[in-house]
Queue: 2 jobs
Job 1
Amino acid sequence: MDKNTENVNENEMSMGRKPSNMQDNMSEKDEFAKTVKETEDKTYWRSFRELYKDPAFNAELKNEFGKESATTPDLAKLSTVSRRKFLALLSASAAVAATGCNSYQDRGVIVPYNQKPEEITLGLPNYYASTCTGCTSVCGILVKTREGRPIKVDGNPDHPVNKGKICTKGQASIMNLYNPERLKEPMFNKGQTAWNEANKNIVASLGSAAASGKEIAIVTHRILSPTLKKIIDEFKVVYPTTKIYSYEVFSDSARRSAWQKSYGKRNMPALQLDKAKIILALESDFLGNDSNQLEYTRLFMQNRDVINGNEFNRLYAVEGAVTITGMNADYRLRLKSDAVEEFVMCLLNEFVNKKKLSGFAADGKVNQVFASNNIDQFAAKYNLDAKAIKNLIEDLAKNQGSAIVMAGDKLPESTHIAVNLLNDVLGSNKLYSQDADNIELMPLSTPAEMESLTENMSVGKVAAVIHFDTNPVYNLSPEFGYAAALAKVPVSVTLTEMVSETSELSNYVLPVNSQYESWGDFKTRTGFYSLQQPIIAPLFNTRQKEAVLLNWKDTKEYNENLYKDYLTENWEKNVYASMGAAVPFKKFWNSVLHDGVALFNEKPEAAGTAFNADAFAGSARMKPSNDFAILLQNNNGVGDGRFASNGWLQELPNAVTKIVWDNYAAISVHSASELGVNSNDMVDISIGGRKQSFPAYIQPGLADKVIEISLGYGRTAAGVVGTGVGVNANVLIAKSPALTERLYNNAQVTRGSGTYELISTQEHFPIDSDPLLKDIQFRRGIIRQGTYDEYKKNPKFLKHESHLNMEPINTPPVYDREGFTGYKWGMSVDLNKCTGCAACITACNVENNIPIVGKDQVKDNREMMWLRIDRYYYGTPDAPAANFQPMLCQHCDYAPCENVCPVAATTHSDDGLNSMAYNRCVGTRYCSNNCPYKVRRFNYFDWRDRFHDGVQYAEPLDLMANPEVTVRSRGVMEKCTFCLQRIMKERQDAIQENRGVIGSNVKTACQEACPAYAIEFGNYMDKESEIAKYREHPLGYGVLEEIKVLPNVTYIAKLRNVNEPMHKTEEH
Amino acid sequence: MKKFLLDYGIKVRIPIILFAAAASFALTYYITYAERTGIGYQPEQPIAFSHKLHAGDMQIDCQYCHVGVEKSRVASVPALNVCMGCHSLARVDKPEIQKLTQYYNENKPLPWKRVHRVPDFAYFNHSVHVNKNISCQSCHGEVQNMDTVANNKFKSIGQVNSFTMGACLDCHRTAHEKFPTLPNLNKGPENCSACHR
């Protein structure tokens, strides 16, 4: 095959079609039938190229490192220093070093503290509770510090909502604190200035603005802090012309206002998802990127636990996009996003008019709205699986009071009202908590308010605008014309941590403290406050943003306790007094700061009124269109763009597509072929005059005529890491959208010009490489799954899955060898609980000092993450299901890597760890070649030095490193160590306390981070331990068991709660 | 003629050269061994602190100052406020104490010269050894007798034992012979992950 045909093939494959030269002797119909037959096998595939058995992909499978790894470096890009000059410099520097050194034995100095803080013991960590302000969830966090430096973040176990877990962004946020590109000094018109100078001028401008009656605009994100709200109220008294504008790119405003219209109160009760037996998710990513992910994941997974024995819940997902939730659903129905409301109407008709489930059956005003909606016709029209629909209706009818319909954040108010009605009909109100309300301190600004702001700005009615840690130039719809309006404002101030599109256009840019340097209090739900305290003194000449406002309000002398004192006083006078605590305030304050949360008795406001039928009957309907629907998505990486300068998050593979360092227009197989685009081709998207071009990515399972795009990319001012990554999708947002800011159904999509290469890790580190086994490799039980019913009938039903010789081998296992310590480490991963959210990957990155390598190197299979989440599709490209499988070093008892190391750099420890001595490694890479799981990572470069000219070596980023883990250098192999440093800490504690090692005391970073509690770790020789229960569970299996390397990671087979059995006959 | 020269070269010159090279390498290796491992290294310290005076004559427990040694991986050099606990009153007239007081009052870092060092990739843990009742002196020598005044320069502590991996393993393998007074002592771990991570 010559090179051209090969390229053509690749392109066609990536479009989801079979390549033309394979169709030679087949009619199209035959070919389709064959494809369907092949894909009906329980065959797992990771990409179209693999599904259709692309010969080039087969070749890549055989070659571990991919063709790019062998490329010779581009000489022009290398250093221009000649060999001669290099030697001259070397000898000169050696001479200088020799003269400068008085003793070659010199070992440097030890500098002790002058005044050691009492709580610090060198070498031991301290933990402080605080609050993460990375998004509106404001989760409680527990920050691990060493010698005063925050080095790791996890959730605060005492926090009632997130209970000890945080998301990918929270985990990686530690890098924002140490980002070398944080603003360090206040700036005025791009020149450095002093705080006092800036404050003096700004206060003068604010004073004259207030005196002349001109508006002072404060543009902020959602106000979540009661004390900040108080400051703003007082600020308004001093400067009466002040107006507050708040916006969020990702908000649940539509749901809230629907709740208000339905039940007459704006505060929504918390949802008790753990009591739901049937869950219908409508375009909702409640397990992924919709609001309240952590709590929902925890509650949902309580009923997906094979150890506690709870009855499994059942999840139906109806969606146009492909979300984490959809991929984890038992039944997933592919439906264009703007038809969701019609689907709800069909269900309403089914339950109200046909089954007469509620009093609304007699309410003509209500039931005539959906009288003409027929579910069967609807299913036929949208080609939905009739069997699944039948199951859904039966399940919902059968489980009244324990079924819940969840609508996504992106759906419009009218859909949410209809869903509220549906939940009312199904009696799902019982699942709403009587004890806790999600409260809102201040509603977000409406589009009309934002529009009046920009109008006032452009006509000169606004004298000063203060961006309170916001980036409206980038975030807001281009139709507001915010940037142009900002130019007309005489004084623009941006308080920000990092440079942004808005700060570039502002007069004053004032650097503010990061969340690890700040004080604060936050309230999102009744019954508790979440407290924020600084973990480290400000690294640069920054100030807390609340303190800056206070300073302008009071014009007092600034000191760094300004906001702390204000906060404490506010708590003493208002909060403490209202709580009626029995202890004196100082004690109370210290204890709530210690806990990170202040719990108290607070009843939610009185329950709202009964469902307001008028709101339902009167709302405008979302009508499906024939145009493309565009979904603007949140993501597990950069969020709304504020994490763009965080390389860990940019390099984190997208949960579903596994694409790194980019956003893209995900498009279905059929829509792509209608448009004639391949993956990587540019598509032009236009919504009512707003245009943008994106690289296309063909996503299996996406509904036809639906395109999903991540927001938060395409930043033009986000430092060297974040600038120019991806394409800005904010420009597609309408200022007053017909549906919501993030959902449009009137888009025109055409093929654009040119291509752009997207890099996905999905084909990296393929597990099998023997061509002889090609046809059976995906039946080798890498993923095992069955149905919940089959499991209940026979818990051991998957034990016979493997047809290969499973006889044990005769060599003694580790625990029979000499020197065995009596404990043996093992991990279990419950595939029933893993959602694929990737919190574990980020946690591992932070804990183990994993470097960022950059997009060009990920392309060459050189990403360094020790833990990856393999995503296996199965089924057809139209309606795939997916399995997520975290894959890390299995610490095999008979580790193949150990046998081939020529220098014994990787060996086995007595407690069953496959250990890696970096200082012995000479970089032959034999171990990686021989690893069946492909979990070893090689340092082709000193990544910290190579990536963006050594930004990872710049100060103060070096303070971020975990001192208990070696920072690896060029030329050595590395891999997961089972968090050896934490094991050694437990060993140290055991010796100190004169007891044995207790396996369950060790929590690996991934285990600690997992919001679904899918990972368990410990000593499985202790038969009472959790890990032993998992290890001996009938669903437990080892990946590639048959090669008898005896892996120490046990996977718990995936159970799908579907009615149709998956194991009809014995396979093979 | 040419052939003879070649033979001479092979038979005589090359062996002599090789022998000389090997012998000089071995000799240098042997003679400099102690110095390379740092045995006898005793740098001059910024303040003339005497371990002999404090730990020897006055019998102050090691852990009074090196507080981390039982709890943590590092023994830790005492913070200046620990010194000042006594020396804000004791011996305030001595010039060395005045130096110390100056460091403390001006909040200046006090750069003690480092004596013992294991490489960064080895994670030695003080607490596990001390909690097994292995005395400080087993590795650090008779610290309570150490102080040297040479050329009017005060050297407070020196290295006595080798801190190479071989020295660690030697002890780990023969713990019972090395510590006959500690009958309950297990052999130390010999796997890589015990120190390298």
Job 2
Amino acid sequence: MWQYVFKRLLLMIPTVLGAAFVIFFMLRAMPGDVCELKLGGEGAYVDEAQIELCREQQGLNDPLVVQFTNFVGGLAVLDFGTSMWTGRKVAYEMGLRFELSLQVAIMATIVSIVIAIPLGTLSAVYQNSWIDYFVRSIAVAGIAVPSFWLGILILLALLSVSDALTGTRWTPPIDYVPLWKDPAYNLSMLIWPALATGYRYSAVATRMMRSALLEVLREDYVRTARAKGLTETLIVNRHALKNALLPVVTVIGIEFAFLMGGLVVTEQVFNLNGLGRLLVDSVTQVDYTMTQGIVMLIVLIFVFTNFLVDILYAWLDPRIRYS
Amino acid sequence: MRTKMWKFALGAVAAAAMTTGAVAETPKSGGTLNFVVGSKIPSYDGHIETTFGMIHPISPFYSLLIRVNPDNPSENDFQCDVCSSWDASADGLTYTYKIRDDVKFHDGTPMTAQDVLATYNKIVFPPEGVASSRKAFYKMVKSMSAPDDTTFVMNLEYPSGAYLPAMASPFNYIYSKKDLDEHGMNWHQKNVNGSGPFKFVQHQPGAFVEGVKYDGYHHEGRPYLDGFKAISAPKMSARVQAIEGDRASIEFRAFPPKQRDDLVAALGDKITVQESDWNCVLMATPNHERPPFDDPRVRKALTLAIDRWGGSEYLSKIAIVKTVGGIVFPNHPLAATEEELVQIAGYSKDLEASREEARRLLKEAGAEGLKFTFNNRGVDQPYRVVGTWLVDQWKQVGLEVDQQVNPSPVFYDILRKTGEFDVSIDFNCQSVINPIADVSKFLPSAGNNYANFEDAEIEALYDKLARAGTFEEQRALMREYETMVLNDKATQAITLWWYKINPYRSYVKGWKIAPSHYLGQQLDQIWLDK
């Protein structure tokens, strides 16, 4: 088992380095620079000498090799550098947003699991019944509806419903307060994006749960259990569900990693100061160091999540670690 | 003349067009103002930043030497902030400011003329390696000194009408000399120690900036608010919903007409709207280095094709543009009157005659049916709206235009660095209305003129304008300069001036709309009627 873990850990290194190389050179291929935007982005007078001074201070005039070496050298000691836009440490800027993004990702994952596992199970157990059709309709709708659009609908509904019920138009808070400081305020802000993204996320997991369980329920050992006279509930809960969870765990793991940095539009809709918004801002501001830092963080989260999923696989199915 | 220059009225279209009654009310103290900001803070240093994303949340922490009166911001009504008075010598070459002796920085250090001197030295004569974004505004300044702790003196090379408006720039935060000496010139990029109406509490990057009332503020009785929270909300829909749901009371930049109407429809008299002309304008800039735009006839045809008067009527319903004007902020005494404007190519009310003339000029220049690319910025308000309108206008005279809408970094790269464009949208957006400085944008040698040409005649004329001593002389030279730029040489084509629309919660009192989203942001005048 430990050898398996070690191998998986080693495989992470070339993946991370490859991603660093790609993101570094792709960013430099983009036109534009941060100094032009910072100093002249709003049409105010801009002195060319000031722009040049800014470029010099940001290291933009250094040869690419030097810039890349600095970037990779920093990565090796987990130093993502300094934001070209704010002048603050990239790690500090990401740290500020990480908590919010992590909370939304966890909440959305919980929403997804709470919806997907029971619905997917029901759908498989009652295959081709009205329950199955109903669940599949919900799942297809979840895949078809973008979460940001669902978010907009939720906001509009909140405004209309609150107006109709109380005469005052209510929207969720737009400034984040940590959960431990004011749980009610925090949840009244984050529950809506968690629902919007959790629903879409659950749709994928529900379909995966259904198909995996259907497959397992046709296995010989399930037939044997039935022949032994076990109840259907016992067969599903004790024998089928655990094995059917394997592909669902994979989907949940990948989706969780995606949620950490991929809620770009949903964060804009709900005005969440998360990693997704930071990534978009840094790209539009041509803030190389910040973009590199966030992308590398997302890469690390993906790589690490995949690593955990692999380990979980090995735990769920002992045959895997020997293959 | 001075009164005429500084006390101009903006006319019927100006501030408070839709404001509720102007009855004076007694301000109430208390409460926290939440407002939304649609841009980000690069750093806290006003001397290097140019964005309202910094001005809106950071200005309440700082004082200025002189400022545009926040109670009357629609006029260039300058008042002392940390000074008690100022005087100009008869020849206009020496300005003496008396500095108040009751101003203290938030760390308790008393402010003196030495702090003002250190601040203006950083802005006007920054040491090598220190950035100062507006030092070019002070080309007329020869030297400065602080002979004692309550006197600050500036000596000019030549008298200039552009000087005093430049001194009232909302970016010229007064820093403590002690901070500059002890921590260096870059300390204020990440730290705040001002003497403004509010003290810095915290900044959560990307989320909000929080300030609390400064009890030692030097303007007696102010500020009225206990504090403020500037909440970052980059997406317009989030800002509108924040006001609708009362999560925020106001946004100080502006909303398009549709969002104003939606808020008014949803909230009725709980929303107040103020509107004003805005000291920003979009223009079409031809690249003079690229034939046939090196030919003034082709450039003139571009401007002749534009229906500005009609565009004002219909674009103002969907975009933040409205007023027809020349190179000077509309309704300023130095701006062209309507009678003067209609003499300039492209401003005539006889649209068909203008377009006929455009077709004739194109034919004469051998550019009939010309195809060209138009570089535009991928920002909806008002760039894309105006850009699409321009494409249609040019189509009316047989021009075929391929509009390329680019994200901001790509747009700037094309406009400023590579110069790989035929015609590009460009803009001039300023804070304090300072026509003589603002129109330097049209100088071929200006760092922010991207038309790529040289013209000694325009340079010489502007030089005369910058040194003109009397208002009459300035006005006459301004007309000559405007005619040369927009008509004779058609170096650029002005479109429509922006129009500022601010819908906000009616319980917010004391805020008056300014012709710039950079002005009146210290918030000491605002109170809440809750």
